[in-house]
Specification:
The chain is α+β, with helices and mostly antiparallel strands. It has one domain (about 5-95): 2-Layer Sandwich (Conserved Hypothetical Protein Mth637, Chain: A). It has 2 helices and 6 strands. Strands 1, 2, 3, 4, 5 and 6 form a 6-stranded mixed beta sheet that branches. The longest helix has 14 residues, at about 45-60. The chain is globular, with a radius of gyration of 12 Å. The mean pLDDT is about 95.
Amino acid sequence: MSLPIFARDGGVTFAVKAVPGSSRDRLAGRHGDALKILVAAPPERGKANAAICALLAELLAVPLRSVTVTAGLLARNKVVHVRGISAEYVRLQLQI
């Protein structure tokens, strides 16, 4: 079963399970209906959210400004929006 990715506002949205305080930034695969993302940044003052956006921008080869956390700013379960790409592109780039 593929990761639920939804077309919205000129891009896509999908769920992310954040794990801050990791030894390094990396995509750890799926966690239920979400992508599990480990980041070294602590969960304070938006540092982990910024690290998640930066990692996704790098993995998806899009500008950093195209990636935003739209829900769950203070939670481990988040929703991310990436402008200018399709669900198929996300699946291809992340191999999920």
